[in-house]
Amino acid sequence: MKDRYLAFLAIIGAVCLLSLSYTSGDPTGYTIEELRTLYSSGDQSKWPAPHLFNEAKEGFQDIGPLPKMKFPEDNPYSEDKMELGKMLFFDPRLSKSGQISCANCHNPEIGWSDGSRVSFGHDRQTGTRNAPTLVNIGYAKTFFWDGRALTLEDQVKGPIENPVEMNFHMSLAAKNIRKIKDYKPFFVKAFGNEEVTEEKIAKAIATFERSLISPPSKFDKFVSGKKDALTDSELNGLHLFRTKANCINCHNTPYFSDQKFHNLGLTYYGRKYEDLGRYLVTQKNEDVGKFKTPTLREVSENKPYMHNGLFPELANIVMMYNAGMGRETPKADQINDPKFPHKSEMIERLNLTDEEIFDIVEFLKTLNSYKYKMRPPELPK
């Protein structure tokens, strides 16, 4: 069935590229050429209005090119600090086993993730959540799927101290680095002295991670005025993304994430793969099953998808949204359970056609740009 569906999508794609009478399916009546003129105008005020639920209107900002990266006042950017952070990011001596570095789960060869459903850590233990990409992570406001870290510097400490991941303590990791004489000149350049501390390690790695920024994608070039940057199929996918498909309600802002927490109906409450999500941080019943909206930039390079990595392809995700995601029906013993999760009211059946699903997937691919394969640096000895 899957092969038949993919073959059908391929046929649809060929038809889209060859047809001279491609139309957008937009119920308001825009032709594809009208949409091309509006979206490539460089003026968002000319774009068709997005379809927004009330829940999404607060703090809404439309999609567009990324702004310049901002660095925190207590951890400003410097080239020397970034280079030190790069070495520490790739250094397995920050782990108890001496074999696991940050790059194990955030591999530059695999879109700064690891391509696995969930990652392997200390003693080949597996976690419960998918490792997200680190590209553009400096634009995030909270970190991890449940938002338990409020700064990128705090996030750096999490995997190092997690017993399932690097299984070390920051103080011991700093002690390891302190023993390495060749690291001292790099700390002098980055911080003005050779003292190695937990805070400096976290700041250096965070600075390196903030340097991982996507160059302009096809989407960015198109909405900035390059009228022919998108095909008709990709353009129709963009318009569907902002209207009929409802994607814009969560995947908004230039980061393509509202950075809020939503329940999509994938809590698996009381079943295998159960994950209570944001609730584990807040202990609020209404947060059961809520997870942070991930960025969609570089999304086709970062499969599998969702917090648990259970969805292997983008088409799977779009089809799930089209169907209204999973059903959350309580069993007899769960009817009065105050923690029983409730799916967001923004999730509803979409009635997208197969051609529209194909177009949305094609648009999502235009958000990719980061092809640079970073070589691991030579580590101090």
Q: Could you explain how this protein is built, in words?
A:
This protein has 381 residues and is mainly alpha-helical. It has helices at 2-18, 32-39, 54-57, 79-89, 102-105, 152-161, 170-178, 184-191, 198-210, 218-223, 232-242, 279-282, 314-322, 354-365, and strands at 261-263, 290-292. Strands 1-2 form a two-stranded antiparallel ribbon. The longest helix has 17 residues, at 2-18. The termini are far apart.
Provide a concise account of the structure shown.
The protein has 14 helices and two strands.
Shape: globular
Taking strands numbered 1, 2, ... along the chain, how are they ordered across the largest sheet? 1-2
What is the number of helical segments per DSSP (H or I, 4+ residues)? 14
Task: Assign a percent range to the helix content.
Answer: 25-40%
| Structural classification | mainly alpha
**Rg result:** 22 Å
pLDDT < 50 runs, ≥5 residues: 1-25
* N→C terminal distance: 54 Å
Order of helix and strand elements from N to C terminus: HHHHHHHHHHHEHEHH
Main beta sheet: 2 strands, antiparallel
Mean pLDDT: 91
How much of the sequence lies in strands comes to under 5%
User: How many individual β-strands?
Assistant: 2
Topology overview:
Blueprint: H1 2-18, H2 32-39, H3 54-57, H4 79-89, H5 102-105, H6 152-161, H7 170-178, H8 184-191, H9 198-210, H10 218-223, H11 232-242, E1 261-263, H12 279-282, E2 290-292, H13 314-322, H14 354-365
Antiparallel strand pairs: 1-2
Helix pairs in contact: 1-14, 4-8, 4-9, 6-9, 11-14, 13-14
